[in-house]
């Protein structure tokens, strides 16, 4: 059986590529220049699944995903938590003492401040961690190093001078695994059956006092746990706020059905983006 390709934002060796290979081993991966391009690859059928980063334990939500998903036509069928383990990479034969410049994505650069101070390196901002690895491999200068994944080192023929150089050991990115609702064999929820389920939904509150309090009250009274709640403006208006919410539970369960009924009464434009098994990373 041929496994469906998985689209991700980034170049080969990016942490999103690593997430695809870790969560869905054996699936071909499809690098895309942007989240929009990754979503379109799934929508057009060039990929069967999309691995879309949605939040990080250090920097919070990943920009754009909360706005792109509700109108994408895709549904969330799984989630994956990928530990971000930064490696110090250089061309074969390079030494730590000979390094002068450090290339990586700005977010990754902010996560290795102690290493930069210790080695006295000059930061050089790049568009992507794996792209930084590819560029120093092409340049061939032993004074240049990159912060990227071990997968990037393997793909671009670089040496790993140090592993786990990130300042914070808990650095983890969460991904939504998405598919077309009508795609045969890939739209079913990914993960073991019978475990805890997650529901991701978006809704808009009315411009009234305590509207969010009332809209979410049903989750509290029915004993449901909200694990994520993000707000953002719609169409540049300061009076229309949309919320993206992750909830532990299945819409067919009585507590969730009651909570959703109450939510529909106080909120507008409720849309369920996906119902999928919770990752074992959550350790319930």
From TrEMBL:
GO terms for cellular component: cytoplasm. Keywords: Amino-acid biosynthesis, Aromatic amino acid biosynthesis, Lyase, Phenylalanine biosynthesis. The record marks 173 as: Essential for prephenate dehydratase activity. NCBIfam families: PRK11899.1. This is prephenate dehydratase. Residues 5-180 form the Prephenate dehydratase domain. PROSITE patterns: ACT (PS51671), PREPHENATE_DEHYDR_3 (PS51171). One of its GO terms (biological process) is L-phenylalanine biosynthetic process. It comes from the Bacteria. Its EC number is 4.2.1.51. Pathway: Amino-acid biosynthesis; L-phenylalanine biosynthesis; phenylpyruvate from prephenate: step 1/1. CDD domains: ACT_CM-PDT, PBP2_Ct-PDT_like. It is an enzyme of class 4 (lyase). GO terms for molecular function: prephenate dehydratase activity. It comes from Endobacter medicaginis. The keyword Protein transport does not apply. It holds the Pfam family PDT. Residues 200-277 form the ACT domain. The keyword S-adenosyl-L-methionine does not apply. It catalyses: prephenate + H(+) = 3-phenylpyruvate + CO2 + H2O.
